Amino acid sequence: VSSGKKRRNVQCPHCDGPIEVGGMTISTVCPSCMKTARVEDLKVDTYWAGSEFYTAGSVTVEPRAVLVAKVRATRMDVDGEVKGPIHLREGIHIGKKGRVVGDVRATSLKIDEGAVLIGRVEITPPAPQGPPAEPRRKKSR
Ligand SMILES: [Zn+2]
Question: pTM of this prediction?
Fold first, then answer.
């Protein structure tokens, strides 16, 4: 019944704190900031507008879909339209029908011919995967 065997570590999309989740978990409460953190890969295939579109997974914006929000995620694939600042832990790909209006922060950027990107772009290499600076010890059962 329960499939909590496969654990994985993700980072909280709100505070970057580490979260350990099961393989099937789609959202959880971050132990660092106590906010609800989505950890699933999200797909936008229609119109979605809101203040925050945060996940520790990836975001795919389908052709003709529109996403209007502040986005934080691991990776992003845009074939529709996105309005809002985008902050990614990894790379972004904007397909030939994709359109992004807003500032983008990511570790890599791939744009197909025909894509639109209007905004400030900051591409920096991924942060080193070292242990976090603060040596907070957590008891693991
Ligand atoms: Zn957090």
Answer: 0.84
